[in-house]
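Why does residue order matter? Because the sequence determines the fold. Keep that principle in mind as you read this record.
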Amino acid sequence: MGFVLFHFTLIVLLASVLTSAACLSAYLVSRKRVLLFAFLAFLFYFFDVAWVLQDELMYPGLDAQMTSAYLMVRSYASILAGAGFLVSFWLVVCTVLGEKSRALMRYGKQHQLSEREREVLYLVLQGNDNQNIASSLQLSPSTVKVHVHNILQKSGQANRQELIRDFWRMS
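Structure:
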């Protein structure tokens, strides 16, 4: 294994351990599940990279001499580490998306927005203009303009920037 690749792998291991520790400490303070899932994901990633590094350092070119029991255990360990990494990051993504949709529902209920106005608000929060919102929802641009006007009026905001700022402040 090359000198540069070895040191790069060590940096990746260090970064994954530090990130994992930061996620764990943030979880212990805030009790947000997304941070626990991120901690587990980075921990699984650390072990996956560490086992690959171990095989490259300890057994370079000795694949034929390794026992079948060792290879079986290492295969299962790699599968578990990879699956743990993927599942943990999938849970992070699902949790983040779920929190955003719950925030949208809360904001919509608080300001008594209709279902269509919530859909328009979601697209406004993504930075879409009236034309893009109209094509996404298959509405006319003037209908979208009316929905945006109603959202601004119900939320008490003067423009889109204030609406976006208010939404993220309230979430």
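The chain has seven helices and no strands.
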